[in-house]
Design brief:
By secondary structure, the chain is mostly helical. It contains 22 helices and four strands. It folds into two domains: 21-154, no CATH class; 194-417 and 425-472, no CATH class.
C-alpha cells in the first residue's frame, strides 16, 4: 500500500544566495529526462510504466536513488508550470520512443496511469496535496488532451468522438509549434504521418474493391470515409479534372505566368486563378467580392515590388485564414457563409489550388483546419453534419492529391454504358484506378513550377525571417 506522506528528508540541497535558496531546476529536469531516455531504450514497457508511476503518480520506491530527489527539487520550488512542463516532456520522451519501436499499447497504458484514483485521495501532507492538485490540473489541461491523441488508434470507432477521425490534423499544431519540446514535435509528426498514410492506403484499396464489387455491395469492403454510398461519386468528381485543365497543370501555368511580375499584378492574377471555372452565380459573385477585398488590403506598400517566395507564402497564408479562421479560434465570416450555402467541395478546391501554387503553406493550412475542428468539436455529430462533410471532403481531396499516389478515371465501355443522343458520359461510366507514382517522373513534372533554388524547412524559415513583409510593415 502506498504511504500517504511526503518525506521531507528527501528535500535536495540548494544553492544559498544571501538569505534565500536557489534551486537548480534545469539540472533537476535534465536528470529526469536523461533517466527516462535511458530506461525506455533498455527496459521493457511494463517496467518503464511502473517506474513512471512510482516517480510521478505514487512518488515512492524508484529504482534510481537519485531520480526521486531530482523530482523533489522541482516540486519544492513550488512552480506548477515547471512541474507540468517536466511531466509533459517526460510523457513525450516515452511516447516518441514507443512510437518508433511500434509499442503502441504502451502509449495507451501510459495515458491510463493518469486515471489512478490516488490523484483524488485526500492527504494530510500539504506538499502531497499540492502535487496531486497539479496532476489533476494536468489531466484536465489541453496538454493532456494533446497526449490523448496518441491513444486514438486503440479506441473503437463507435466510442470515438467524431473529431478523432481527424487526429492527423489535430496533431499538426503540436509539431508546427516551435515552443514545444523536440520529443513532442517528433512524436506528433510521426503519428500524423502514419495516420495519413493509413488513410491513403485504405482509400486506395476501397476505390478498387468497391468498383469491382459495386453490384454485390459486400460487407467486407470497408469504406474509410463517412460519406456512405456517395463517397465513390465524390471521389470521381474530385479526380475528374485531368489533362490540360487539371488543377496541377493550372497551378503550373499560374506559377510560370506570374514569375517576375510585381505584387499588384500578382494579386490580380491570383484572384483570377482562384475563381477560374466557378459558375457565374450569386455564390461566385459573393466569393469574388470577399477575395478581392482581402487581396486588395494585403501588403499595399509592396505592390511595386517583384513577388518573392516569402511574399507568396505570406499572401497564401492570409487567404487561407480568410477562407477558414482568421483568429485561429473561430470560423471566419467567409467560411461560415460558404458552409451555410452548402458548398464544401468548392471551398476545398479553393484551398487545394492555394496548396498547389505554394506547397509550403500546407502545414499552416492543416493547422487552421485543426483550429476549426477544435471549435466544432463542442457539438455532437448530429448538430454539425454539414461541417463534418467539409472535413471529410478536405481529407479525401488532400489524400488524392498526395505526392506518391496517382488517381485516374478510366472509361469502361459496354453496350449499356454507351452515351445516348450525344449526351456526355456520366461518372458511372468510369472506374477509379490508383497507382504509386514514379518518383523520378514526379520530380520531373514538378520542376516547371519550382524555382531553380530549393529550400529545406529550416532554410525557408530563415527566408521568411529575412523577407517577411509583416516584419517590416
Amino acid at each position: 500500500m502506498t504511504r500517504d506522506t511526503w518525506t521531507d528528508k528527501f528535500q535536495p540541497s540548494s544553492k544559498k544566495i544571501g538569505s534565500r535558496y536557489q534551486r537548480d531546476i534545469p539540472n533537476a529536469r535534465k536528470a529526469v529526462f536523461d533517466y527516462l531516455l535511458k530506461i525506455v531504450k533498455k527496459w521493457s514497457p511494463a517496467d518503464v510504466l511502473d517506474e513512471f508511476k512510482h516517480l510521478f503518480i505514487h512518488h515512492i520506491n524508484t529504482s534510481n536513488s537519485v531520480i526521486l530527489p531530482a523530482l523533489y527539487e522541482i516540486v519544492f520550488a513550488n512552480k506548477e508550470a515547471d512541474f507540468r512542463n517536466t511531466l509533459k516532456r517526460s510523457c513525450y520522451i516515452l511516447i516518441n520512443n514507443w512510437e518508433l519501436a511500434r509499442q503502441h499499447d504502451a502509449i495507451r497504458d501510459l495515458i491510463a496511469l493518469f486515471e489512478d484514483p490516488i490523484l483524488r485521495r485526500p492527504t494530510q501532507s500539504p506538499t502531497l496535496r499540492r502535487l496531486r492538485g497539479w496532476l489533476r490540473h494536468f489531466v484536465e489541461s489541453q496538454d493532456f488532451e494533446e497526449i490523448r491523441l496518441f491513444a486514438t488508434r486503440h479506441q473503437e470507432m463507435a466510442e470515438e468522438h467524431w473529431s478523432r477521425r481527424y487526429t492527423s490534423y489535430l496533431l499538426v499544431p503540436q509539431y508546427a509549434n516551435l515552443e514545444n519540446s523536440t520529443e513532442q514535435r517528433e512524436a506528433a509528426r510521426t503519428l500524423s504521418y502514419q495516420l495519413k498514410e493509413k488513410f491513403k492506403m485504405d482509400l486506395a484499396f476501397y476505390t478498387v474493391l468497391a468498383e469491382q464489387t459495386s453490384h454485390k455491395s459486400p460487407k467486407d469492403v470497408i469504406n474509410p470515409t463517412v460519406l456512405g454510398d456517395e463517397s465513390l461519386r465524390m471521389i470521381k468528381r474530385i479526380i475528374a479534372k485531368r489533362g490540360t485543365f487539371s488543377y496541377e497543370n493550372l497551378a503550373n501555368i499560374f506559377r510560370h505566368q506570374t514569375d517576375q511580375i510585381n505584387y499588384y499584378d500578382f494579386k490580380q492574377a491570383l484572384k483570377e486563378y482562384l475563381l477560374y471555372s466557378l459558375s457565374n452565380n450569386d455564390f461566385a459573385q459573393g466569393l469574388e467580392i470577399s477575395i478581392t477585398e482581402k487581396l486588395g488590403s494585403l501588403y499595399k506598400s509592396y505592390e511595386e515590388s517583384l513577388v518573392n517566395d516569402a511574399l507568396l507564402l505570406r499572401t497564401c497564408n492570409r487567404i487561407i485564414e480568410c477562407l477558414t479562421t482568421e483568429d485561429h479560434k473561430t470560423p471566419s465570416a467567409l467560411f461560415s457563409r460558404l458552409m451555410s450555402q452548402g458548398n464544401p467541395l468548392t471551398l476545398v478546391i479553393l484551398l487545394l489550388k492555394i496548396v498547389l501554387i505554394c506547397r509550403h503553406v500546407r502545414t499552416h493550412l492543416e493547422s487552421r483546419i485543426a483550429d476549426l475542428i477544435r471549435y466544432y468539436e463542442q457539438f455532437d455529430m448530429e448538430s454539425c453534419q454539414w461541417v463534418i462533410s467539409f472535413f471529410e471532403i478536405f481529407k479525401i481531396t488532400m489524400t488524392i492529391h498526395a505526392d506518391n499516389i496517382e488517381y485516374n478515371l478510366v472509361r469502361v465501355m459496354n453496350e449499356k454504358d454507351a452515351p445516348k443522343n450525344g449526351k456526355p458520359d456520366s461518372l458511372e461510366s468510369y472506374r477509379i484506378f490508383s497507382r504509386t507514382r514514379d518518383h523520378d517522373t514526379q520530380v520531373q513534372a514538378a520542376q516547371p513550377e519550382e524555382s531553380s533554388q530549393t529550400y529545406s524547412s529550416n532554410s525557408l524559415m530563415k527566408l521568411e525571417k529575412q523577407e517577411d513583409p509583416e516584419a517590416r510593415l
